[in-house]
Amino acid sequence: MGFVDEVTVFARAGRGGDGSASLHSEPFKPRGGPDGGDGGRGGDVIFEVTPGVHDLSALAERPHLRAENGRSGGPGRRTGADGADLVVPVPDGTVVSDEHGLLADLVGAGARAVVARGGRGGRGNASLATGRNRAPRTAEAGEPGEEKHLTVELRLVADVGLVGLPNAGKSTLLSRLTAARPKIAPYPFTTLSPNLGVIQGDRRLVVADVPGLVEGAHEGRGLGDRFLRHVSRCRALLMVVDLSAEDPARDLAVVRAEIEAYDAGLAARPFAVVGTKADLVDDPERAVKRLGPDAIATSGVTGRGLDRLAERVADLAALPRAEADRRPFVVLRPARPAFEVRREGERFRVVGRGVERWVAETDFDDPRAVVRLQKRLIREGVERQLSALGARRGDEVVIGDRAFEFIPGAPEEERS
Length: 416
Ligand SMILES: Nc1nc2c(ncn2[C@@H]2O[C@H](COP(=O)(O)OP(=O)(O)OP(=O)(O)O)[C@@H](O)[C@H]2O)c(=O)[nH]1
Ligand SMILES: [Mg+2]
Known about the structure:
Layout (H helix, E strand, L loop, with lengths): L5 E7 L32 E5 L7 H5 L2 E3 L19 E5 L3 E5 L2 E6 L5 E5 L8 H4 L18 E8 L5 E5 L5 H8 L17 E6 L3 E6 L26 E7 L5 H15 L1 H4 L3 E6 L7 H6 L6 E2 L8 H13 L10 E2 L9 E5 L2 E5 L1 H9 L5 H13 L2 H7 L7 E4 L2 E4 L4 H6 L1
Parallel strand pairs: 1-3, 2-4, 9-11, 9-12, 12-13, 13-14, 17-18
Antiparallel strand pairs: 1-8, 2-7, 5-6, 5-8, 6-15, 10-11, 16-17, 18-19
The structure holds guanosine-5'-triphosphate and magnesium ion (MG).
């Protein structure tokens, strides 16, 4: 598989082990106490930046990620073993999102994020015994692990990015500045995926060459602007313009406008303007002046301007990287409402990690447990939300994999 920079995967964390509902028994003792142990925790699915991993092809080949389930508790208060975490090696610059948005932005070796959390183990009946119920006959089921469809993107972490129209000579520049040997050809869209090269000067500088932009790239024209994300972390940009083109100044304006439309922050990054193919124009210095006072005229054929360009690149890359840029961060979303009620045709569905867990953990053969659940749902405002959305007595309400009949205020009625 080639260079893979975007992939969707399905991550399933481990389910928590069930609690045990064992009752202690010894010869000649008629009835023992509850001695069922707790279930173990389900494993997490974790992404970790690992040196040596350069793209997402391993994920693309194995898009189903599963962590181990926790084991069930056992008699004699035996706690079930925790499920092992699944640690997935990802390249530096991996960005993970789920349907709610950004989840983690992993920068720097060792940066890690839990992308799907394992379920808690259910409590065994030994832990559930209370003064009022000394010998519970049931135990909690383990909590399901999180299941998530994730979009994973790679944003290369280069120091300097080459941006320009197709055929401007970006890959040629990369090949002249570094040891990289990207494909070069006399037609647009030669480069279809980003190339990286390294300038070994006083410092090691990584240069990224990305596919060409066209006017309207931000609306999806040409190859679109999605490749710009690879240069979105660069300290500096080189805007590459073909001096032999009909109107180089206009080409530069197009490139600027596309970068601006993609991300105003990127447009504000330090940059240099490079005119290429100086060997093809009569008066390169005059031509390049039209692109700005500091623009540099270069030629991949004669080697003109390349030393000056390399110096300029080193200067640009020495500028401090914008503060926020190298900080790995994992998004901790602001507390989402604990649940959400949706109408699904005739019925209603309540979704939410907490409520679904309560339902999953309830023993429906135990009427008291059911009443407890119902009270909990009322306390949490689920009933109110359902009524507000138009649920009527007798309507079907689905929570997790269970269907209920909506009977507002039931536990209260039962008490009287
Ligand atoms: N004469 C001359 N030709 C050049 C120069 N630089 C690039 N070229 C030619 O211009 C064409 C395009 O060069 P590339 O380096 O592939 O251009 P690119 O910007 O990477 O193009 P895409 O990957 O399609 O966006 C090739 O035929 C190169 O040989 C130069 O300085 N002088
Ligand atoms: Mg190219």
